[in-house]
């Protein structure tokens, strides 16, 4: 019982710190967020942050993982709504790119995230996205719906295109005007792997 209570308390503390981090990083950016923004506002100490995340960068990694995981879930839901398969894969990519219009996603995941945490392709959340894309492509390959190319290579390239498209939208001075151009280009590039009547000739 004591162990369960302690685990619950630790989980609650982590959740409070991540929530405080999301708020502070979204409003002030990583460099502008002070330790008080990350701890005092939720009634916690710096020691709690150090114990749970090591340092400010560790908290940033947890915040990015949480937001990026939610983004992946929403993209997956968009893919399922589109019917799964190839259409679903395109819908997932488009949905992920479109989330670059959200201020929290722009600032934390797409602008500060790479600057603070390095190459996004190495993030745990991006690896989970990669595995999901690989699974979808394997199903499409089994149905002979895509060309016989290496599945992991295509998955990495498709995910990379979607991520870089989102990064471009986030950094654009006119993100809403940039978005449709980016989504159209993503779909054009992605469609190169699809088997069409013409490609069978």
From TrEMBL:
<protein>
    <submittedName>
        <fullName>TetR family transcriptional regulator</fullName>
    </submittedName>
</protein>
<dbReference type="InterPro" id="IPR050109">
    <property type="entry name" value="HTH-type_TetR-like_transc_reg"/>
</dbReference>
<dbReference type="GO" id="GO:0000976">
    <property type="term" value="F:transcription cis-regulatory region binding"/>
</dbReference>
<dbReference type="InterPro" id="IPR009057">
    <property type="entry name" value="Homeodomain-like_sf"/>
</dbReference>
<dbReference type="GO" id="GO:0003700">
    <property type="term" value="F:DNA-binding transcription factor activity"/>
</dbReference>
<dbReference type="InterPro" id="IPR049484">
    <property type="entry name" value="Rv0078-like_C"/>
</dbReference>
<dbReference type="Pfam" id="PF00440">
    <property type="entry name" value="TetR_N"/>
</dbReference>
<feature type="domain" description="HTH tetR-type">
    <location>
        <begin position="11"/>
        <end position="71"/>
    </location>
</feature>
<feature type="DNA-binding region" description="H-T-H motif">
    <location>
        <begin position="34"/>
        <end position="53"/>
    </location>
</feature>
<dbReference type="InterPro" id="IPR001647">
    <property type="entry name" value="HTH_TetR"/>
</dbReference>
<keyword id="KW-0238">DNA-binding</keyword>
<dbReference type="Pfam" id="PF21351">
    <property type="entry name" value="TetR_C_41"/>
</dbReference>
